[in-house]
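FORM 7B: Structural annotation worksheet

SECTION A. Query
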Amino acid sequence: MNKFGMFIHWGVYSKTGLHEQALARYGLDKTEYEQLYKSFNPTLYNPEDWVLLAKNAGMKYICFTAKHHDGFCMWDTKYTDYKITNTPYKKDVLKMLAEACSKHGILLSLYYSNPDWHNEYAYNEKSTHQWCCTNREKSDVEKYKTYIKNQLTELLSNYGKIYTLFWDIPTNIEDKSMNEHVRSLQPDILINDRGWDKGDFSTPERSVPDGARFERMTEACQSVGEQAWGYRADEDYYSIRFLTSSIDKIMAMGGSYLLNVGPTELGEIPPRSREIIEKVGNWYSRVGETLENHSPSSKHVKLRGGIPFVATEKNGKTYIHLYNGIPSSAIAFESGVDSDIKEAKLVNDGRKLRVRKGLLPGWGNGQGYANGPFVSIADIPVDEYEKEPMIIELTW
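SECTION B. Predicted structure
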């Protein structure tokens, strides 16, 4: 796995300009909300633009919300009339996206919400996010599972090869037949842990776990905005530094990373979201090779001063991921690090850094003289890269 991807939350909720769960979180009238699709007409939707934005940022796949909690379907399903092809737009936007992904060599993943606030059988008392479910007294898990399987048959049969399936909101009901059905349609698909069994990979959301290496296949997800995943007109956006730091840490730990945008009701990616993707992509274009298809460092590397880092290895070289920055223009290794580092390079811009071995008087032994000698890397342009994490390549 271990890839950088784009998450896209898009649905009829974009018309509210509030949140992908606006129906629940803003207490909207459900009858009125469920009429929004009649005026949903994303005439500016250009899936090729989305795909090229992702590709130019170094992303390898797109995960698209086929159906979110409100139950509105973004493909031409025959199992409900609550769908994109019953809007004034009429077109199957998922089919258009799948074709654009195939054209430009981008993998396609699909998101599918287990909660469904529109389907009459979907209420699940064992799960969460059930706030706006219909007909709670008539809920029928077995009938709803049949509905899901029928829709997944469409999604996994009619849109080409699907890279991953992103179930959302754990059902807390174990039924291995659900994922077995998925794999019968797409044998090579990877399935997350938010569905009907533990699946293939874990999904930390809006968080960066502690540690140096994931024990299980992992895909973290984060949005460019702090408040919402779907389009929010008055969004609070994360800094480039915050996002690149989390991407660096997650991917250095061996995980994949989905960075989300929420298109408007017209189908455009908002200017600020686009700008963030482009700036993050600029950083990733320079360092991304070190973040994919690596292994844990075989060298015992530890930095003095408690500087947070992750060490990885690729093609015989060691990479020091300084995801939270450093306080000065040098890093020093604890005693025991092999002194024959032949070369050090800052991956961000390719410049060579100075490798030195000697006493460092700031690291004293409490008796009035310096411990050491220490191996250290000097002349790191720390102030030039205060807005992005630095990665140092060591050749031994």
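SECTION C. Observations
The longest strand covers residues 61-67. The longest helix spans residues 271-291.

SECTION D. Sign-off
Analyst initials: ____
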